[in-house]
Amino acid sequence: MAWPALVRSDGSILLGLQVNVGSGDASRDLANVLLAALEAEPGDPVPLGRVTEDSPRLQDLVDVSATLDIDVREDFEFWVDGASELSAEVKASLERASDYAHPTVKLAALPSAYWTQMGEKEYLRWVLPQDEERVLDAFARLHAAGTDTLGDGTRFIGMFRFQGVVCPVWEMPLGTGAAAIEEGAADLNTRFETAVASTEPLSNEERRARAGITTRQVTLR
After folding, report:
1. Is 13 within 8 Å of 34 (Cβ atoms)?
2. CA 111 to CA 108: how far, in whole Å?
3. Which contiguous run of DSSP H or E holds residue 209?
4. Which pLDDT score, from 0 to 100, does residue 76 have?
């Protein structure tokens, strides 16, 4: 039902990222419902409370130095782990969610990179922690040199910008699959690390490449 949070019958807490309500500040929204969930009874859904600029942020409540363990699932059965019986309504909800979801695989060669198939196309999205300006400079260098691909048939098509980070995106032919781009992704990572560490001024060609990348950026809110 897209609740912001849920306390399971065993006391474990689920926080939702794609929900129907929000203040526009995802960090404070998640902190708000986490605090509410800690006070809620097992089995209870948790609504979003009043969030202001003085509300705590999620990074104020959790250990941000801890490794983030991403577990990619093929379906949404984890929503109801441990449930002995499922009603027809719940089963239908799980089926609808699975129908809308796109196949997704986390790459081993890159940190925070995910292959996905959407319709008749495949994409790789790589979420980067570095400063946006440094990332733009790095990809301008790679693009100008023709080394911003994952291999034959792949194409760097632009970047998303969201929640303070940037996410470069590549397109590849249908049928490529995640395993086929692992080696190319590892090579790209090596080239990117070199490019993002460079402090040399951009050449004229690199500045033109950077301008082209900037115009193709999409901001997600």
Report:
1. yes
2. 7
3. helix 204-215
4. 81
